[in-house]
Each structure stands twice: as structure tokens, then as C-alpha cells.
Amino acid sequence: MAYLSSDIVKILRAQVRRNCQHPFYLKKLKKVGLKPDDIKTLEDFATIPFMTRTEFYEALLRDYSSFMQDSVVRINLSPSPLGLIPILNTKKDIEVMNKANARAFERAGVTKDDVVMITFGYHVFIAGMMFHGAFEEIGAKVIPLGPGSTSQAIEVAEKLKPTVLVANPSFALKLAKEGLEGIRILIAAGEPFSSVRGYKERVRDAYGDVTLIDYYGMAECTPIACECRHETGLHVSTDFCYVEVIDPETGERVGDGERGEIVVTHLNKEVMPLQRYRTGDLGVVDSIECPCGMGLTMPTGIFGRTDEMYKVKGVKIYPSQIPFVLKSFPELTGRFRMEIEKTEKGTDVLRVIVEGRGDAEVIKSRLREALLVTPEVKVVERLDGEGVEDRRY
Question: What was the pLDDT predicted at 145?
Fold first, then answer.
């Protein structure tokens, strides 16, 4: 995968050297007999063992004080299966993050003349403050609305006339149906958006002439990728993080345009840096030519998780991809059951039973595009039991 910065190896080496001041990261390199100065190519960097979310969170909870530095100025929290996890940032970390997000939002068309209404939370979690800092960096006027009722958002909007809305796409659609007007740019985050076929069209129909921006980031690392005003896909924030795409099963890198698990590494992080961090998110990264000048791009956002995988006819199937497809059919409830069986001849059969109403052939076609295997599809009014049943063994 081509990376835009010719100095990327030098930047990664410096970040790894800084990371190794903490035993958690140093142990990773020692495991393969590597020193920071040994990293002279991207292939050298790729020999560093991956970080996983579980081991990182366990290390934080087990030895939180070792990650804490005197230079930390902000502590947010992020929910996890292990409980609330602290997200630490120094003043420089926040400045670097704000500038990277500001550059992304300027490519999206945001200017200092905009009034931005943010509907993400400001208490405890990172999203509201993260977005806020970026728009202040641009010089825009920011309304820190936070989460709340639709009526409250409409009332505030009628008085303050926002031109940019930052929201979950589902909430943005709800606001449009309630009469929100004057929005020229929607920055959508926190939910699948561009990866759901037809979703953008529904939102655009509701708002009219609007630029729709899909945004990808997470509490531990943001931004990762964001669309520009040309809407050619989510451009990787190559000035903020290094992104790899790997085969979730083998850990080997995949080629440009091939789906796989997103792996991220911070390029300039002082505290709690991510280093070859397996996100568990399924995506595609490709090199394109965009009028905005960015190249490394995710054609759509995240379209699944790697937590569960089955092989059908030699193809890796991720059940988490199915809801992304079903969400594009408003007449379906989203409930489904996936079944895998073997015929008498030993051939795998994939069957997806969905709840609601709809054309099974159209649904099958969409699922085939996403899963790369042709499933049998059955549409029922009421589904008895959800989940995955593998009956082959």
C-alpha cells in the first residue's frame, strides 16, 4: 500500500522510539529482537507484533499509573467490555488531534464563516470535545449542543442558524424530518453511513443541497479517515496515523482495494499511543486521485467487524456485515439468522433469513456483493431466533 509521506519510515521510527520508553511497547519489540533504529523500511515496521484491544485495555486497568504522565491534561473515558477505559491526552496530543481534524474538515468545506452545531456528548466521552476543538481551530462558531431531544435541537437551530451539523446519521435524518433547514454540510459519525447503500441518498433527499461527510475515528485514535467535499470516499489522515489493512486470519497485509482489518499506528502521540493496533473493523483502503489532493482512501466506511468469521466455499464470511446490508432496506426490521449447511455432495450452503418485507432476489444480490458468496435468502414476517447456526460439523 502506497503511503503519501516519503518520510513515513522516519516518522514511524521516531514514534516507536518514543513508545519504547514504556515497558508495554518495549516488550513488543523485544519479542522479535527488534530495536527502534532497526526500522529502516515499512517491512521492518511490519515485524512489530500487533496490539489488540483486549491486551491494551487490560494493561491500562492493571497498571494505569504507568501510562499516566505529568504532561497529561485531559482524561476522557471510553466504554469497553472491561468497563470504562481512561483515554489520556497531553496538551500537545490535543493540539495535534485538533489540527488534523481541522485539516480534514476544511477539505470537507468547513470555513471560519460557518456556524457548527455538535450533537455528540461533551461529558466523560471524547467525541464532543474532540469535534469542538477542531472547529475552533478553523475559527468557526461552535454550538456545543450535545445529545438531547429533537425539539431542543430544532429550537436552538431556529435561533442560531447552524450551517454545519455534526451528528449520528440517524439523528440527522430525524432532525431533517422535523424541519431542520439551512444545513450545507453534515458530518456524520458514530454509526455506519457511506457503507450502507442508499443511506446517503435518503439523507440527501431529506436535506436537499447538502455535502455529506462520513467520518471514521475512535476514542483511542481520531481522526483515522474523513470524506472531503467531493465525496469520493474517506481519505486516510496520513498526517496523523499510519494505516495498514491485514487479513484478519493470517495477519498478513492485503493488497490495495482488498477488504481486511484496519490496523492503525499514531504518528505523533505522546501518551497512550497506538502501535500496530488491531481495530477489529473491516474496511478497504485504496489509492485514488481526488481533486482535493488526497490519495489514500476508504471507498466506503467500516462495513463489519472481525470478531466472528466463518469460511463458506473458501471465502471468509463475517456475519457483522449483514446488518450493514439490511439497513439499506427500510422495509426490513434488521433482524436475521444466518445458517450454514452442507449438501449431500459436501457443498457449503449459506442461508440468510430476514424479518420484514422485501424482494428476496434484490436482497440476495446485495448480500452477494458484500459477502462475496451467493446466499439463499428467505424473507419472513416474523423471525424465530436470531444469530448464526453452523450445521456443517
Answer: 96
126 with 132: CB under 8 angstroms?
no
Cα–Cα distances (Å) from 173 to 20, 30, 176, in that order, read: 45, 50, 5
pLDDT computed for residue 19 by the predictor: 97
Residues 233, 238, 239, 242: is their CA dihedral positive or negative?
positive
pLDDT of residue 95: 98
* 115-118 and 85-90 strand pairing: unpaired
User: The sheet that has 211-218: what strands, in order across it?
Assistant: 141-143, 115-118, 164-167, 185-188, 211-218, 221-227, 234-236, 296-298, 286-287
**Distance, CA of 238 to CA of 139 (rounded, Å):** 23
**310-390 CATH pick, 3.30.70.260, 3.30.300.30, 3.30.420.150, 1.10.12.10:** 3.30.300.30
223 cis-preceded (ω within 30 degrees of 0): yes
Alpha-carbon torsion (182, 184, 189, 192), positive or negative: positive
Q: Which CATH superfamily is domain 88-298 in?
A: ANL, N-terminal domain (3.40.50.12780)
Extract the C-alpha cell encoding 25.
511497547
* Alpha helical stretches, state H, the chain: 8-19, 23-31, 42-45, 53-62, 64-67, 91-107, 127-138, 150-160, 169-177, 199-207, 322-326, 360-371
Residue with cell 466504554: 79
Give tens-digit pLDDT for 115-171. 999 999 988 889 999 999 999 999 999 999 998 889 999 999 999 999 999 999 999
384 pLDDT tier (thresholds 50, 70, 90): confident
> What secondary structure letter does DSSP report for 67?
H
CA distance 220 to 210: 30
DSSP-derived secondary structure letter, 289: -
Where in the chain do CATH 3.30.300.30 domains reside? 310-390
Cα separation values, 203 from 31, 172, 174, 259, 365, Å: 49, 8, 9, 26, 23
Tell me, what's the pLDDT at 389? 87
Q: Within 10 A of 55 (CB to CB), how many other CB atoms are there?
A: 12
Question: d(Cα 106, Cα 387) in Å, to the nearest integer?
Answer: 42
